[in-house]
Specification:
Layout lengths: L1 H32 L16 H6 L3 H32 L6 H9 L6 H23 L11 H28 L4 H9 L4 H12 L1 H17 L2 H6 L11 H10 L4 H32 L1
Helix pairs in contact: 3-4, 3-6, 3-9, 4-6, 6-9, 9-12, 11-12
């Protein structure tokens, strides 16, 4: 038993060391530097909480945070609803179900920057051409204002991640005992009742996982934001990750950017942990 324990830790040590060097050590140093005037190379003096106080006075950060929260709420709902709908579709007894699974999952294999440029071409060129041909002004200049830019980002995110979330739901839907479904059919339950009363309680853990993944992804999104709108027009579609990056590498205010990153981390961690706790508790109730 002791030899097995030693072997376990020997195999695990390289992974833990790499994780510490890449994640934990930079996080600790970043947290410390947020209380200084760090310029990326050195910190000359300790400034206390002044960087954190200035964060809440930065209107650009507040605007980007509010935009990110709205984007996250809409994206999380749509990605999970569409992902579950696709999962229900491809778990039906159809000959094309395997092909459909592949097609729906494929957008997730494309990089965020590439997807952003693809959809930028669609929104700017294709939509404009269709709008001009049909005389529909709403399709022209799709990324030229904050409202349509917001929905452009939502469409891109849903198109990319709905297929990935679909896979998670498929795994739980296919684990539902067929005997329960058949028994509910014999009892006269219709399709909606079978889903809500039989399938839904059994796939509840999938909601916990999917909501956590979509929540963290929506809050941390950067590359799609960069490629599609680059925060424009006039920073109206700038999300928090891009705002922090611009503060650090465009304005060269490293310590201030690090304070923003710490606040952002606390916010995302609090929301994610609350969501996981609530859903886990709900799973028990179900």
């Amino acid at each position: 038993m002791r030899n097995r324990s030693v072997s376990f830790w020997l195999f695990l040590t390289p992974t833990l060391a790499a994780l510490a060097l890449v994640v934990f050590v930079p996080f600790i140093y970043g947290f410390i530097f947020s209380f200084t005037d760090w310029n990326g190379l050195k910190a000359n003096e300790f400034v206390g909480f002044s960087n954190y106080i200035d964060v809440f006075k930065d209107q650009n950060f507040i605007n980007s945070l509010w935009f990110t929260i709205k984007f996250a709420v809409v994206s999380i709902i749509l990605v999970n609803v569409i992902g579950l709908g696709l999962a229900l579709l491809v778990t039906q007894r159809m000959k094309s179900s395997n092909a459909l699974r592949t097609v729906f999952f494929m957008p997730n294999l494309i990089g965020g920057l590439i997807l952003g440029f693809i959809w930028q071409f669609i929104f700017v060129s294709a939509f404009d051409a269709v709008g001009s041909a049909l005389g529909v002004g709403a399709l022209q200049g799709w990324l030229s204002n904050a409202e349509t830019g917001f929905w452009g980002l939502v469409i891109l995110n849903v198109w990319q991640y709905a297929g990935y979330i679909m896979i998670i739901y498929i795994a739980y839907l296919e684990s539902v005992p067929q005997e329960l479904i058949e028994a509910s059919e014999i009892d006269g339950a219709n399709a909606l009742q079978r889903f809500w009363r039989v399938k839904f309680p059994l796939v509840a853990p999938a909601f916990t996982i999917s909501l956590f993944l979509t929540l963290s992804n929506a809050f941390k999104m950067y590359d799609q934001n960069l490629a599609l709108t680059n925060g424009g027009p006039f920073r109206s579609t700038e999300m928090v990750a891009m705002q922090i990056y611009n503060t650090a590498f465009a304005e060269y205010d490293m310590a201030f950017a690090q304070a923003k990153a710490v606040i952002f981390f606390i916010l995302v961690a609090a929301v994610a942990l609350t969501q996981v706790y609530y859903n886990k508790k709900r799973e028990v109730d179900l």
